[in-house]
Amino acid sequence: MREITYANAIKEAMVQEMRSNEDVFILGEDIGVFGGAFGVTSGMLDEFGPERVRNTPISESAISGCAVGAAMMGMRPILELQFSDFVMIALDNIVNQAAKMRYMFGGKTHVPMVVRLPSGSGLGMAAQHSQSLEAWMAHVPGLIVIQPSTPYDAKGLMKTAINNDNPVIFYEHKGLYNSKSDVPEDEYDIPLGVADVKKEGEDLTVIATGIMVQRSLQAAEQLEKEGISIEVIDPRTLVPLDKETIIESVIKTNRALVVYEAVERSGYGAEIASLIGESEAFDFLDAPISRLGGIATPIPYNPSLEKAAVPQVEDIIEKVKSIVQK
Amino acid sequence: MVNNLEETIYSNQQMKKMLTDMMLIRSFEEAVEKLFQEGKIPGTMHLCIGQEATAVGACAALTDEDKITSTHRGHGHSIAKGAEIKPMMAELLGKATGYGKGKGGSMHIADLTIGNLGANGIVAAGLPIGTGAALASQMKKKGYVVLCFFGDGAANEGAFHEALNLASIWNLPVVFFCENNQYGMSGPVKEMVNIEHISDRAKSYGIPGFTINGNDVIEVAKATQEAVDRARSGEGPTLIEAETYRWRGHSRSDARKYRTREEEKDWRNTKDPISKFKERLIEESILTEKEFLEIQKTIDTEIHEAVSFAEESPEPSLDTLEVDIYV
Ligand SMILES: Cc1ncc(C[n+]2csc(CCOP(=O)(O)OP(=O)(O)O)c2C)c(N)n1
Ligand SMILES: [Mg+2]
């Protein structure tokens, strides 16, 4: 199999869907000749032309609402926002419109659109270009929320997202765009609500999302050398969430740590932690369920401060040890 | 607009100051570009090289009490409004001595003591905020005027339209100053709007609108002065569109496939706001070549000192991570 980047895996899924389904198109700022702020759409204009790769004005409100209307009328738009932070300007269309339309209309419409959101910190882009607000989206009934951590998952989940009949929020991590892994050339989809056990282990279950999956795997390698074996689970889709895989794992390891980049307070990790606490896994716990998330601060510009604001590999190692060695 | 310097309202001293400020902005940004290439500046930066006349001309019409809101491409605005370049440079290097104590970086430089309400990472966010600052001026009878810088791309955000309308119906002392540098990140203004001039939009909101040569610092200063005078005398907002060109790419990596090298060359060679203005000042015996070189020398020293200051400044300590989140 060949290795491709996370960015190219996302592009490949979009391209394959656009080849097979005329209704799929993409719109966004600078996605044409520029190829998108992170190069994800590079080359797509050449293949599909400006009708289906629509370079828009800087108008997040208009383009998100436009995606909703087009989706209601049978198109399957993919909306690229340059940074997930700019979704604030599009939120009315996503939350007040797309998410509830079907429900309010008694099931008489559906809004099949994908909103692609490059998120996360680590690039020195400061407070308005580095946020991880996936919990906001997961809180809204009617939205599907996907957060892939590998090129393989990104490709399969993008295909699933495009073919899903609901509004789908697709979180991409800016720090993962250049990461590579084996990705089949053929089309494949990954179902929603199926977590992936990225590494098996015995002593503790780490449930990690986004870039924290990679950091947890690195932590696992080092912990292994010290005789601590952790299992790493990536839910891959936050809504719907694969509860069984998480619960079964915790029943096996008897310890749980949720690791996420977003501000720890009220983050999606809190949802996972309480899910475990309320499940049959509770009786098997040998230690309190723990969370490791970001400090409750806007993301600072200075690189050392920025690193300190979100969990790093060493923080995960330390946290795991503090739980296992208690 | 009058282009004959003899008919300007500016003294020789003021005009030399404008030239000096433009030169300082360019030298500052050339230094920033170099530091970025050396890996000393994290993240990204947006350079306004080629657009110096808009920042300097517009700010020349403002008093120290007047305010500005700025953009992601804000180094020029900041310097023209009177920022010190040492804490600016330090901020770009993420140092504790920077304007934002290393927490904001290039896109978030602000100095309220000199009326700079901040650069902004969100396109068009400065327009409603500037409108609000103008509302405070009106309500508290402060007399200051607010000038909102924004780009051609920003004029397609809802925030632009909503702010202009609000400022108009409340008759607020604000000047909306569009730097039309012909492109957003890549989107050409010709493809992104279906009207000849962004300033035509002023009509929809019942305010005056003008398109001016943004590479002529005197023309910019005079047009802005008229708008500022209107605002200060209670006649409400004005929309100014200043046509200019950014010489560099949008930010750190930009292959500039959306425009031609010929077009770039034309703007650089025939419309450089600095060399054009310098030539005029020399032609009219306001400046000598020798003086020009001396100014550049002083600026070079100043920049050198700012870079050393920034490089020698300490990193913010980790205990500051959670400082300044709340009052
Ligand atoms: C709300 C929002 N949308 C998109 C962006 C990404 N972005 C940053 S600068 C820019 C182009 C802005 O163009 P313009 O207003 O003309 O200013 P210029 O860069 O030309 O100075 C874009 C799209 C952003 N920062 N904020
Ligand atoms: Mg522009």
From TrEMBL, chain A:
Pfam families given in the database record: Transket_pyr (PF02779), Transketolase_C (PF02780)
InterPro entries: THDP-binding, Transketo_C/PFOR_II, Transketolase-like_Pyr-bd, Transketolase_C
GO MF entries: oxidoreductase activity
Gene3D superfamilies attached to this UniProt entry: 3.40.50.920, 3.40.50.970
Keywords: Oxidoreductase, Pyruvate, Thiamine pyrophosphate
Top-level taxon of origin: Bacteria
Cofactor requirements of the protein: thiamine diphosphate
Transketolase-like pyrimidine-binding domain: residues covered: 4-179
Family matches, as PANTHER family: PYRUVATE DEHYDROGENASE E1 COMPONENT BETA SUBUNIT, PYRUVATE DEHYDROGENASE E1 COMPONENT SUBUNIT BETA
Descriptive protein name: Pyruvate dehydrogenase E1 component beta subunit
UniProtKB/TrEMBL annotation, chain B:
Keywords of the record: Oxidoreductase, Pyruvate, Thiamine pyrophosphate
CDD domains to which the protein is assigned, alphabetical: TPP_E1_PDC_ADC_BCADC
Gene Ontology BP annotations: pyruvate decarboxylation to acetyl-CoA
Keyword presence, DNA damage: no
Acyltransferase keyword on record: no
Names of the cofactor(s): thiamine diphosphate
EC number: 1.2.4.1
Reactions listed under catalytic activity: N(6)-[(R)-lipoyl]-L-lysyl-[protein] + pyruvate + H(+) = N(6)-[(R)-S(8)-acetyldihydrolipoyl]-L-lysyl-[protein] + CO2
Span of domain Dehydrogenase E1 component: 21-317
GO molecular function terms listed in the Swiss-Prot or TrEMBL record: pyruvate dehydrogenase (acetyl-transferring) activity
Signal peptide: none
Domain of life: Bacteria
InterPro entries registered for this protein in UniProt: DH_E1, PDH_E1_Alpha_Subunit, Pyrv_DH_E1_asu_subgrp-y, THDP-binding
NCBIfam families noted in UniProt: PDH_E1_alph_y
Subunit structure and binding partners: Heterodimer of an alpha and a beta chain.
Function: The pyruvate dehydrogenase complex catalyzes the overall conversion of pyruvate to acetyl-CoA and CO(2).
The protein's name in its UniProt record: Pyruvate dehydrogenase E1 component subunit alpha
Species this chain originates from: Lacicoccus alkaliphilus DSM 16010
